[in-house]
Design a protein that fits this description.
The protein is of the alpha+beta class and about 300 residues long. Helices cover about 45% and strands about 15% of the residues. Helix 4 runs parallel beside helix 8 (about 245-265), helix 5 packs antiparallel against helix 8 (about 245-265) and helix 8 packs antiparallel against helix 9 (about 270-280).
Length: about 300
């Protein structure tokens, strides 16, 4: 986050909140990144989407309301007409969660199982596109050399072909789309209440896509033990790594994570080392998995 980003984001926030009669007095940033999250007084969170995400913002609200109707624990949108548009951006308004922390894979697995078991909603969701923004990130990245860029674009085309030939897996369903533990919050009540967050990528697709996020945390990042990963699979009821299509989904996930690191490196030079390390890994220069990738933002 830069000072300019924060200033511009706050200016948009003021314009948006004025349209719905809310005040920015005491507003605090929660996270300013691709999407900007602000906390307002009175227990309101404003999510300001990046430019061009009007449809995705409306879908997020529709998904959250549908989850509430189906008793799936998740963050709830405010009961108001939304999303709201101002300053070329789109915003949604949400209930502020009580004091909470990131969930674990053990918290996430039952929520995903509950989500995947739901019947498809009446409103349109769209189909999963696992390659969204990968090419754009690669073509615009300033922190990658031409040789590596060409290799990564070739890898992208190979994975597109593999995706078209995926073996039969579990039935298509509503998927979260970005199902890692950071999108699961836990409120420390006597019953340890876990909730789903962030429905920007929610769509219809293969449930294996959601499950691959945690498999990659174990397989690629190496930040889950075998026992932890086994417990996750036990609670969900399936191990995606046993499916023949897993290697393709892992490859797509890894390429997404490489391009995200490149995007962050263009904005924050401290991410450059990790971006280059990830490229070396997928190009076979750093030995076998797990590679011990570190977070970049």
């Amino acid at each position: 986050m830069t000072a300019t980003h924060a200033k511009d984001s706050f200016a948009v926030l003021k314009e948006i909140t004025a349209l719905v009669g809310l005040s920015t007095a005491g507003a605090e940033p929660i996270r300013l990144a691709e999407n900007d999250l602000w906390r307002l007084s009175g227990g309101v969170v404003v999510r300001v989407a990046r430019v061009g995400q009007e449809a995705a913002a409306a879908r997020e609200v529709a998904v959250a309301r549908w989850l509430a109707e189906n008793d799936v624990p998740a963050v709830r949108p405010l009961p108001m007409e939304q999303p709201v548009h101002a300053g070329g951006r789109t915003a949604t308004f949400w209930e502020l969660l009580p004091q909470h922390q990131h969930g674990t894979e053990v918290d996430l697995a039952p929520l995903l199982r509950q989500l995947h078991d739901l019947p498809k909603p009446a409103f349109p969701l769209g189909k999963l596109d696992p390659f969204v923004r990968i090419a754009e990130r690669l073509n615009s990245a300033r922190s990658v050399g031409d040789t590596d860029r060409e290799w990564l674009l070739g890898r992208l085309e190979d994975l597109r072909g593999e995706w078209e030939r995926l073996p039969v897996g579990r039935p298509e369903c509503v998927i979260h789309g970005d199902a890692w533990r950071g999108n699961c919050a836990v409120i420390e009540t006597p019953n340890r209440m876990a909730l789903l967050l962030d429905f920007e990528r929610t769509s219809l697709g293969v449930p294996e896509w959601d499950l691959t996020s945690t498999a990659v945390a174990y397989d690629t990042f190496g930040n889950l033990s075998r026992d932890q990963y086994g417990r996750y699979c036990e609670l969900y009821g399936y191990d995606v790594m046993s499916w023949p299509g897993y290697l393709t989904l892992r490859g797509i996930r890894e390429l997404r994570l490489v391009t995200f690191a490149l995007q962050m490196a263009d904005q924050a030079p401290q991410a450059l080392r990790q971006a280059r390390y990830r490229i070396d890994c997928v190009r076979g220069r750093r030995g076998s998995r797990p590679w011990g990738w570190e977070a970049v933002g």
